[in-house]
Specification:
single chain; 283 residues; alpha+beta; Jelly Rolls; 7-stranded mixed beta sheet; 4-stranded antiparallel beta sheet; 5 helices
Amino acid sequence: MSVANRLTPNELDRFSRDGFLFPIRVLEPQEAGDCLARLEAMEAQRAGRLSAVFNAKPHLLVPWLWDLVHDPRIVDRVEDILGPDLLCWGTSFISKSPGDSRYVAWHQDITYWGLTTTDAATAWVALTPSVPENGCVRAVPGSHRQRLAHTDSGDSANLLGRGEKMIAAVNDSEAIDLVLAPGEMSLHHCLAVHGSAHNNSHLRRVGFAIRYISSANTLRAGARNSATLVRGRNLGSFALEKAPEGEFHPAAVARHPGIVRDGMRIIFDGAPSPLNRESRASD
């Protein structure tokens, strides 16, 4: 682990106190621009957008995304929070076009992940500016200290996979805008209450969300899922995923639907995750 990539004691204290940390420079602006250009090239080849299926764990289809998930500038910081044995549970691009009415309801990430611990965190890597005008992520400091009840919103404008939202109201004045420049990331605890508004600007907002978990995590009884070993040992109950042989290589494309189905089954068929012990990442 490079010393330059480590979180400082002050940053670790902030994460423990608030449940999130930002901004953290992980890519140079030109690198972020290159990533955006590559994404737009993939979209242009597919009627202007990645399908919902291809946007579920796209790092299993695209080698440069696999490399990004393993990038030590990201992973070293995650290790400081979750420990040395790390899996990537999922990835996705989260995009809002100019004037997009879609939004992300207030929620806690881990609600329907099927995990039995809270040893999990999300790295949100900005490929464009992420600011209040275009619907940046907002989070409530200290909200990661308790599990809160959720319900299904039934709102098709809600970008969350299950359309979930918290039942309790959130005081917007308590939330903080996680403003990021291209190449910066935020880290947030899997229980941090967060969401984002729609895009009121003329600027597209694009981020790449990487869901990291401790490999010691186990799944609720009867659940089946796979994950990508990022660092250290696989200590839990996840089958390990393979790197893509090339961009949308036929072998990777053939493996991908079954992996996505297993993940969606956990999210859509399951009750809230049965968390049963203290987390390394929480207070």
